[in-house]
Amino acid sequence: MATQTKKGQGELSSEHLAALLDLMADADSAELKVTLPETEHRSAIDALGLDPLEAQIRQVFFFDTPDLQLQQNGVVVRARRIQGRGGDTVVKLRPVVPDDLPEDLRRSQGMNVEVDAMPGSYVCSATMKGRIRNDQVLEAVRGERPLRKLFSKEQRSFFDAYGPAGLGLDDLRVLGPTFVLKVVLRPPELRDRLVAEAWLIEGGSTILELSTKSPPAEAFQAAAELRAFLGGQGLDLTADPNTKTKTTLEYFAAKLQGEAEATA
Questions:
Q1: CB-CB contact of 209 with 33 (8 Å)
Q2: Which end of the chain is less congested by CB atoms within 10 angstroms, N or C?
C-alpha cells in the first residue's frame, strides 16, 4: 500500500485514490488542510473575517538534530505551550500503514492514527500524544529539565522504537520557538469547524493553514464541502509546498548550523 505523500496539484490518480481509501478505512481520524500561498493571506483574512484579537496564542518547539535526522526518518517530536490551558507534546511517525502498527500501540489512549489530506496529496501518520504543564516546557527548552522528562513513558518507548538508532531524546536540540495564532471558525456551510493557524516563523516567513477534521467515513464529503466553501470565498486552493513543519524545521536547523560555523 502506498504511504508516501503523493505530490501534485491536480486530482489523485485512481491508484492513489484506492490507496487513500484503504488508509481511511483503518485510520482513527482525517484532517483536511490547505496551506495558502503568501499572496493569498490578505484575501483569506478578509474573506474569512479572521480577527487576531480572537486568536489563541501557541508557542511551538520542535526537537531534532542540526542535520534533521528525525525529519529524514519520518519522526517529528514537538512540545507546545498554549494560552489559557496546559501544554502538550507529541511524538509522530509518518508515513505509516495502520495495519503495520502493533496492537498495543493502536489500543493506547494516547495514540491517534490520522490521514492528512491536502490538494493533490495525502499522508498517514501515527501520533503518540501527551499532556504537560506550560512551565515545564519552558524549563526544558531553557535547559533546566532534561528533554526526555517532557514525554510520557509511552512516548519515550515509541520514540525508541521508531527513532534513529543511537539517538535519544536528550540528544536533540531545540528548534524554536515559533509563535502560532489559532482562530476557530464555524461557517454554516461546513459540518465541522474550520481552524485557521498563522505560523509566525522567525526571519519573516508566515505560514497560513486552514484545516478541518472529520471522521474517516465522512472525509470525502467534508473535503468537497471545504473546497466549495473556500472556493466560494475566492481563495486560490493551489497548495503552498512550504508546509508549517517543514519550513520551521529547515529554518531553525539552518540557524543552528550557522551558529556552529560561526563558533568553529
A1: yes
A2: C
Q: Which three cell numbers stand for residue 37?
A: 500561498
Give the whole-angstrom CA distance, residue 225 versus residue 215: 14
Residue type, 180: V
Asked whether the beta carbons of 209 and 193 are under 8 A apart, the reply is no
The angle at the Cα of 220, spanning 117 to 55, to the nearest 5 degrees, equals: 55
Predicted TM-score of the model (pTM): 0.92
What's the alpha-carbon Rg for the chain, to the nearest Å?
19
- Residue 187: name the closest of 239, 118, 235 by CA: 235
pLDDT in tens, the chain (264 residues): 334 444 444 566 778 788 888 889 999 999 999 999 888 999 999 999 999 999 999 999 999 999 999 999 999 999 999 999 999 999 999 999 999 999 999 999 999 999 999 888 899 999 999 999 999 999 999 999 999 999 999 999 999 999 999 999 999 999 999 999 999 999 999 989 999 999 999 988 899 999 999 999 999 999 999 999 999 999 887 767 778 999 999 999 999 999 988 987
Q: What size, in residues, is the chain? A: 264
CA distance 153 to 128: 11
Distance between CA 24 and CA 22 in Å, rounded?
5
- Which domains does the chain show, CATH number per domain? 14-263 (2.40.320.10)
The three cell numbers locating residue 256: 543552528
How many Cα neighbours within 13 Å face the side chain of 204?
0
Q: Could you tell me the three cell numbers for 169?
A: 531524546
